Amino acid sequence: MLKGVPSSMGDEYPLNMTTLLRHAAGTFPTSEIVHRRLDESWARTDYAGMLRRVSQLAHALDSLDITPGTTVGVLDWNHLRHLELYFGVPSVGAVMLQLNIRLAPTDLVYVVDHSEAQWIFVDESLLSVAESLADKVNVRGWVVMTDKPSSEISTSLENVYFYEDLLAGQSEEYDFQFIEETSAAYAGYTTGTTGRPKGVYYSHRSMYLHTLGLISALKIDYLDCVMPVTPMFHAVSWGFPQGAVGAGTKIVLPGRFSADNIGFVAEALVEENVTVANGAPALFAPMLEYLRQLPEAPDLSNTRLVSGSTEPPLSLMKGFSDLTGADVIHGYGASETSPLVSYNWRLKAELADLPEAEKWDLKRYQGLPILGTEIKVVGPENEELPHDGKSMGEVLIRGPWIARSYPKLDDNDERFHEGWWRSGDVGVITPEGYLKLTDRLKDVIKSGGEWISSIDMENAIMDHPKVLEAAVIGVPDEKYQERPVAFVVGRDGAEVTKEDVYEVLADRFAKWQLPDEVVVSQELPRTSVGKLEKKRLRAEWQSN
Amino acid sequence: MLKGVPSSMGDEYPLNMTTLLRHAAGTFPTSEIVHRRLDESWARTDYAGMLRRVSQLAHALDSLDITPGTTVGVLDWNHLRHLELYFGVPSVGAVMLQLNIRLAPTDLVYVVDHSEAQWIFVDESLLSVAESLADKVNVRGWVVMTDKPSSEISTSLENVYFYEDLLAGQSEEYDFQFIEETSAAYAGYTTGTTGRPKGVYYSHRSMYLHTLGLISALKIDYLDCVMPVTPMFHAVSWGFPQGAVGAGTKIVLPGRFSADNIGFVAEALVEENVTVANGAPALFAPMLEYLRQLPEAPDLSNTRLVSGSTEPPLSLMKGFSDLTGADVIHGYGASETSPLVSYNWRLKAELADLPEAEKWDLKRYQGLPILGTEIKVVGPENEELPHDGKSMGEVLIRGPWIARSYPKLDDNDERFHEGWWRSGDVGVITPEGYLKLTDRLKDVIKSGGEWISSIDMENAIMDHPKVLEAAVIGVPDEKYQERPVAFVVGRDGAEVTKEDVYEVLADRFAKWQLPDEVVVSQELPRTSVGKLEKKRLRAEWQSN
């Protein structure tokens, strides 16, 4: 690295999470924070109030001897106290560890152990999760978060404190210290389909820069209203709480909800004039259904819904646009990338003349890299492939908010290459600079030195009216290394033939790419969260 | 500073100016750069072309042995080569030194000496400035920038190279190295009314963060078109070239112009659909006049004109708004602050019900701090004053793009306090968080332990129909330390009396604040650039 003449600017002024909150409370003291409590009532505070509470929280953390170096686990929904912890824990130099309540119990125990968490803060509604961990982990104590008097809470946990009792009587002012910016502010563990969860430790610096990237990309300012719909125990809530506080927006916290009980979240979106929200298609889809049933379609023409985790279906994007004017923006990233890497919002001027259908198709792409992230697509020798929209390779990412290693793990060499993180995704970059994913690396079919996208082929097969579902896997082949095999489920029990499949693929795939076999199935194997399990398909094929 | 658990993110990935250009060329290769040449013709290139030229420039700098540690002075207007130098010089780890062509020759010599600049790049039209410096400075050589063949240029400079000759034949690819982010990328010298120019060395980090701040505050993206009207030899061009490149916008470079010859700049604003521009009121005012004379008023309703250096007159803000829909945004800062500290664009929601006149008045304030800058107003003991809109004190600023010292100068203690830069401005902060400047520290009248704003009083006096101009100074007083004295110039030779002045001040000032004396003058002393010279008024008062 080159080193030039020293500057005379405030280079030692660190990028800290605390700065975001101090800025919000100082410049936007009356911006509202609207939050839903466990008892389903709504309440309101503002940034001035939040800074007072976070100051009390910092004193409380001091009183528990939570200091730089301490890791604090959190089990909570999108509640106000969770937001306070997002700023309070890092403010004393400690690490806030996200505990994903959807993890298998053994994985949760592994995460607490591996991260050496010393305290766990738990919402009253998740006490049973905490209690199931209690005798398997080694923590100093538990802090229960509840709106009830602590005397009304009964729990088998030992060394229990109560959040509100800890805060009560603490001073509402705290002398926040600067924190070295490469110190971790947050930690989360990713859950792959194989292996143990992997730790990702987000620094104050990386989250601060991610916050600026998010605010710029979505043009968020103090006239906006941000609602974090994505659970706050997932991937730092995609940086939305930090983005909201940094920009001084009104915030709406929906508390506890599920995809089956999300009507009130959609209602709050409309009632509170939310202009920015995030979520997976699995959450946005039922919200759209709820809005469809309102007597009058709401005007959400200023609303940006950032959809991540999987590609948003066209029906979701068009549905929101037609009904409400809201813009569903495809965002791409992962826990290892803080997560925002690229986004797909306003169409580039040079593409303004595309036919409508192509514009919609383009909107499904992963989009343009955000300033600060570098994306490249590489071939088998890690050579960078051209931006031609055709050259398919693994997507590698680097930048100030992209992971550079997994702490305390020995498979780092497989997942990192010369400072770049290997996403495990396969994609292309178009001449206009758009990233488009075509597959997962483990699912792409490597046949005769070429790659065939299993996802592209599945989508094409599903265009056949007789097909309900399709899955394409690569199976070992002596001559070609791998060959594609398609599994299809017929719509309403229809019989799907190899000819049907070949017919619908003819225009879009070369002859050598067509699947050797078409297997008609009753259903496709899926994980507990509904993800297609190709691993099982491959195993079944092998054993037959 | 606290130090916590290490993170696992790319914290060592440095914030570099080169990243901005690589991002623009990679993601927005066809975004246009429209530029006016010295011969007044317009030409076009794009970011892909710019990266090729900057790569050639980097090779050329290598060939001149310009390396990390070298300082390169530039004498140029808002030309394309100037923009190339903005990225090319920092890209090899060297410092680009802005040479303000408006400086007195002795000051220019001082700046070149003090900065130890080793090379000076000079536009053909400024050769006479370079030649007048040549025998007084000690540089290794000069590089002349011209569109003509070098054989047509005659100059008395020795060790002369020609920019285009240096670039010709160089490879269009360059392996840009990462640069330690606290290395200086740019240097500029501030010109106060007293003392020698003071150096400000902007780091890659500080300018990168300023760029993100600018992009967020003005919501700039790749659909925008940015025109840097402020001379590119002033205060890093307010960071607008970096902001434009970072966001991948189209750029319009107006080349050489002056306030007297700015019609074509206004024309380009309209013709090229410029949506973001910067400038002093002295430049925007004649542009507005030009636009008024067009047969049809242009629609600039998506255009943000950032006005800095002095408070924009109400007539300018309203004029642009009424005629074109353009929003004149007051921005506050100084060379020491990169420069953007605060801005005044969209009104806070809580102020939406203010009467129209009060909204316009508020728009003249310096506005809300940008995320990343901290502003406080302090009293005589450096104690922070409340945000009550009344407590007047000196404005102190700190943050990652605010100066922390003046290199190689010994009056740092007077201008810095515990990491904060003393702006020398006097102001208040309103309960809504708006900064409003009321005076310069050296002009405020300290009377009986209280401060009286000379500017507020001048503005009030000038509301009297008989008054053309007014200046208020503090004169020494045994009992009260200082007392105000007003100097007034009558409109069309009108006689202005003390009673006239008292009458117009009665509502707005307390009795003890009224000026002890009112002196009627024929004219007020001004500097060569038209600035009121209160120093001379004070001296005249003392000598009488």
From TrEMBL, chains A, B:
<keyword id="KW-0443">Lipid metabolism</keyword>
<dbReference type="Pfam" id="PF13193">
    <property type="entry name" value="AMP-binding_C"/>
</dbReference>
<protein>
    <submittedName>
        <fullName>Fatty-acyl-CoA synthase</fullName>
        <ecNumber>6.2.1.-</ecNumber>
    </submittedName>
</protein>
<dbReference type="InterPro" id="IPR000873">
    <property type="entry name" value="AMP-dep_synth/lig_dom"/>
</dbReference>
<keyword id="KW-0276">Fatty acid metabolism</keyword>
<keyword id="KW-0436">Ligase</keyword>
<dbReference type="InterPro" id="IPR045851">
    <property type="entry name" value="AMP-bd_C_sf"/>
</dbReference>
<feature type="domain" description="AMP-binding enzyme C-terminal">
    <location>
        <begin position="457"/>
        <end position="531"/>
    </location>
</feature>
<dbReference type="InterPro" id="IPR042099">
    <property type="entry name" value="ANL_N_sf"/>
</dbReference>
<dbReference type="Pfam" id="PF00501">
    <property type="entry name" value="AMP-binding"/>
</dbReference>
<dbReference type="GO" id="GO:0016874">
    <property type="term" value="F:ligase activity"/>
</dbReference>
<feature type="domain" description="AMP-dependent synthetase/ligase">
    <location>
        <begin position="22"/>
        <end position="406"/>
    </location>
</feature>
<dbReference type="InterPro" id="IPR025110">
    <property type="entry name" value="AMP-bd_C"/>
</dbReference>
<comment type="similarity">
    <text>Belongs to the ATP-dependent AMP-binding enzyme family.</text>
</comment>
